[in-house]
Amino acid sequence: MSRKTNPAFVANASQRRGPVRVRTRRITANFSKLYPPDGEGKIWWGRLKKALGTGSSDFVNASLLQLQAAAQFPGSGISETGINAALALIEGFSPQNEVEAALAVQMACTHIATMSVLARLGPGSGTEDRFCRLGSAAARLMRAFTTQFEAYRRLRHGGDQYVRVEHVHINEGAQAVIGNVRPQESGRAQLRESQITRDDEDKGGAP
Q1: 109-145 CB burial, b ≥16 within 10 A, e <16
Q2: pTM given for the model
Q3: In the chain, what are the domain boundaries?
C-alpha cells in the first residue's frame, strides 16, 4: 500500500507557466532595486510569494536579498540573469512552505557558487596548486548540493520508504514467465531471464 506524495520537484517544465522574473535597477555595486518586468506589481509580488511557498512579504524580501548577494557573475556585479535563473530553479522545486523554500534558496545559491568556481577552471586558470584548490572547492560544492537535495527530498516525503509487493498466482497446469519478454521476428517470445513451469500432472515423482 503506498501513500500519494508530492514530487520533490516539477519534472516537466511544460506542466507549469513561465517562472516569475524580476528586473533590476542598480543602486550600488552590491545592491539593486527589483521591480516587476511588466509593471503589474501586485500580481508579480503574489507570484513571488507562491514561488517561495510563503505568505510572508518579509520572507520574500529576505530571500531576494540573499539571491542578490549570491547571483553575482565574476567581474560583473549583480546579475539580473543570475537572479532570474535562481528563481526559476527555486520555482522548479515548488516549495510548499518557508522551510522547503529556504532549502531551495540554499540549493540555488550553491549552484551559482559551483558554476562560478568551475568557470575559473578554464584555460589560464593559473598554477597547478590553484587548479587543484579550485577543483577541490567545486567538488565540495557539488557534494553540498547533493546533500541539500537529499535533505529536501526527505523533508518533502518524510523519509518514508515503500515496498510494493505483487503476488503472481499460477493455476494448475499453467506456466509463468519471470523476466523481460521480447518478441522476435518469428513472433515467438524470447525468454531473457528464466522460466518456471508448474505442472501438477502425475509425472511419477510426486507423492
Answers
A1: bbbbbbebbeebeeeeeeeeeeeeebeebbeebeeeb
A2: 0.66
A3: 13-157, 166-202
